Structure formats: C-alpha cells, structure tokens
Amino acid sequence: LAKVTTLDPTTGDPWDVLDLATLGGAKALGLDDVCGSLEVGKRADIVTVDLRQLHFVPLMHGRFENVAAHLVFSASGHDVDQVWVDGRLLVDGGEVLSVDVATVMADA
C-alpha cells in the first residue's frame, strides 16, 4: 500500500516486509508462541527458494546485500523449491509430495 500512495517503488524496507510476513503474521493471528520464527519448541515451517533464476541477478552479499529485496519484490510461487510444515517435507523440487496432484485436479 505504501508504494501505491507514494508512487515510490523503493518504499518499504524488504527486511521489514519479511518480518511482517512471518512473525508479524503469526502475532496478528495470536500464534507467535508456536510459529512465525525459527526457534526451539516452535513448529518447523520453512520455505526454500531457488535463487538460481535470471530475475534474481545480480545476487549480492555483504555491504550491498539484496537477498531480502529479491525475495520480496521478485520471487513468486514458481521459485519455491521446498516447503517444510511442522518438520515434514511437503514440496520438493517444486513438486507437491503430500497429495496426488492428478487426483486433486481430476476432482476439482
């Protein structure tokens, strides 16, 4: 929303956006004691993203690090490599493991 009101594509710190999408979302739902951050005793919900894509170039580290900006402004669901929910691998290599996708599509 800030980008719409200011017409500035650089509005909003990407690290703040990631925090809002993870721990901030869990806090809003009253679930921050069980999820939203990687801590001992919390559910292990993790998404890995394949950063070896053209739209993530250049990928820089150190003083000019831009990983968070790429995740917030460039990544999409097509870039998801793995999804772990409560410690269980549900998506690997972008393929759903937890359900028979063909059956779900046929029943839809």
TrEMBL record:
Keywords: Hydrolase. Gene3D superfamilies: Metal-dependent hydrolases, Urease, subunit C, domain 1. InterPro entries: Amidohydro-rel (IPR006680), Metal-dep_hydrolase_composite (IPR011059), MTA/SAH_deaminase (IPR050287). Pfam families: Amidohydro_1. GO terms for molecular function: hydrolase activity, acting on carbon-nitrogen (but not peptide) bonds. Residues 10-89 form the Amidohydrolase-related domain. Belongs to the metallo-dependent hydrolases superfamily. ATZ/TRZ family. This is Amidohydrolase family protein. It comes from Metapseudomonas otitidis. The lineage of its organism: Bacteria, Pseudomonadati, Pseudomonadota, Gammaproteobacteria, Pseudomonadales.
